[in-house]
Amino acid sequence: MAHITCKEFLKKKGVNITVRTYLIDALGAMAFGLFASLLIGTIFGTLGEKTQITLFNTIAEYCKSATGAALGVSIAYALHAPQLVLFSAATVGIAGNALGGPVGALVSTVISTELGKLVSKETRVDILVTPGVTIISGVLMAQFVGPGVSAFMTAFGNLVKTATEMQPFFMGILVSALIGIALTLPISSAAICIMLSLDGLAGGAATAGCCAQMIGFAILSFGENGIGGLLAQGLGTSMLQMGNIVKNPRTWIPPTLASMVTGPVATCLFRMENIPAGSGMGTCGMVGPIGVYTAMGGGASMWLGILLVCFLLPAVLTWIFGEILRKLQWIRPGDLKLDL
After folding, report:
1. What's the CA gap between 193 and 57, in Å, rounded?
2. Per-residue pLDDT tens digits for 98-155
3. What is the pTM of this model?
4. Measured on CA atoms in the order 107, 110, 111, 116, is the torsion positive or negative?
5. Longest dimension (CA), the chain
6. CB 128 within 8 A of CB 93
7. What's the DSSP call for residue 25?
8. Which of 129, 216, 282, 336 reaches 20 to 30 Å from 266, CA-CA?
9. What is the DSSP letter of 250?
10. In Å, what is the CA distance from 312 to each residue of 87, 109, 260, 317?
């Protein structure tokens, strides 16, 4: 029997050790896991609190309790795990999330999934070996890295939140621009905000940046993409424009400049706050504004802030900046066309 190299074996098992695999594919899938558990649970919890309907609160409790399992399965799915590894990842996700939060779930699930893939279908007792290796390695990894990862992410998140409280203008600009850029990149701004527990004023600034990218690109490209593009980007994701941004990076300037204006407007003028589950979502499914409502509880100032920061200012500012760039011929006809 011919010997195969380590590289050939890894390829055979579908283990692709790249930055894209772990920091784009896995992180992106992780956001779906968060949305299908913690985030949707938060929305139901808000509905239950405001409507006093017990069913919504019950659903919210079950959704939130499933967060770890949803994270594990979603990450393993992104890594193309075989069935036994995929199902075992639910246990790993629970352990990782309990001991290290979402980042702990990410690290432990990635490592255990890849190890599980290596032993999958290599023995006659695969039904025991594959889930055994996946779960044991995952739980050990969660115990080993979880507490440290959790402490670091909490400390870093607290640093960002404290800095935003102390310097709402400058940090409003910085947080809004960076989280908005992350939303458009093929990574998950929602996962980042949840991992950092980004709430309060910092969450409000993040919301402003995400909304600026989504509403901004929707308006900027309306002439080329029409109503379909408006809805796909304004209520879906500005990530659709990533291919066009690669071709012409200048198309990214108008919404990013808009976010640098709306960020300090959110932090300084309206004192806008959000919860971690909503701060990185923008107007996707209206989750960002719902999160603001959950965090602030209503009031005329809050509603005016949502209207201006999440919708009107991003639309108007991005359109103005876009017209300037079009006159300079930095943005040309067709640069923002989507294949919808």
Report:
1. 24
2. 998 888 999 999 999 999 999 998 899 999 999 999 999 999 999 999 899 888 888 9
3. 0.79
4. positive
5. 75
6. no
7. I
8. 336
9. G
10. 45, 41, 15, 8
